[in-house]
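#struct-help
A.M.: can someone run this one for me? Single chain, 274 residues.
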Amino acid sequence: MVINLNGYDIFYEIKGNKDSIESVIMLNGLMMSTMSWYPLLGGLDNYKIYLLDFIDQGKSQKFDGKEYSQDLQKRILESFIHELDIREPHIIGTSYGGEVAIRYAIENSHKIKSLTLSNTTFCTNYLLQEIGRGWIDACEVENKRLFFKCTLSYIYSKEFYEERKDWLNTREEFFVKNLPSDWYEGIKRLIISAEDLEIPVEKLKNIKAPTMIISSDEDKLISKEDSKILNREIYNSRCVSIIGAGHAAMYEKPNEWVSIIKGFIENIGIDIKI
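D.P.: on it. Structure tokens below:
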């Protein structure tokens, strides 16, 4: 389905139990689309699940200019929730989607039931900027194999690379044969949109909704320190680290990832004391 939000055609899907009174919104990482979530939905199928592609992602409209701020995606999310009248959703964001979720939650914490931030940050530090610039350079030389190797080596753990060579080779061929030039142009704009991410630590305290922070011990992009700061500054938050996974923890350890989120959502309001 497509809805026009703020002048942009945004693609979205509704999955899970469409009659449920509880809703989940899942926000894509940088190179994801709504389809990227399909393998993970079985564990959350008791909820009404909303998937959407941000501007420059999947089947949504491409940006009609040179660049934009990630704040534009936050406004798209605001309009999406408003137009579809989604009441108190559980918002789950990974990486780029988590950054947009933080921006939204700082201003709209009272409108959400819970927040899950997986492998995400509140600040694009210089190292992360330089990695992103390297990815942009790989896009600009139009060498699709180079782009694949430059990006996925940061996204997955060493163990995953060793054990899933066939899967990685298949993914590389998909990148080379199926992704058009405008996909890479969109990736460049998405990377640039996150470069100005620098949320003051004190603003994180505005997030009052119950929050789960998921990190992984082999994440080469997001530091453990960033996750610790999120956990420290977001008052009603918990933090879990997935062992043996890289940045794409949800794909490397899907059972653990879904179990963390499902357990968190289902136990909101329960305060276990020993």
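A.M.: thanks! The CA atoms of residues 264 and 270 lie 10 Å apart.
D.P.: also worth noting: The beta strands are 2-5, 8-16, 23-27, 48-52, 90-94, 114-118, 211-216, 237-242.
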